[in-house]
Amino acid sequence: MTERLEANEAGISRAAELLRAGGLVAFGTETVYGLGADATSDTAVARIFAAKERPRFNPLISHFPDAEAAFTEAVADDLARRLADRFWPGPLTLILPRQPDGTISDLAAAGLPSVAVRVPRGTVTAALLRATGRPVAAPSANLSGKVSPSDAYHVLRGLTGRIDAVLDSGPCPVGVESTVLDLTGTAPVLLRPGGVTIEALAEICGPISHPDDYTDTLPVSPGRMASHYAPSLPVRLDAQEVGADEALLAFGPELPGAGLVWNLSPSGTVDEAAARLFAGLRFLDSEGARRGLTRIAAMPIPRAGLGLAIRDRLRRAASPRPA
Ligand code: TXA
Ligand code: MG
Question: Which residue windows are transmembrane per the record (predicted)?
Answer without folding.
Answer: none
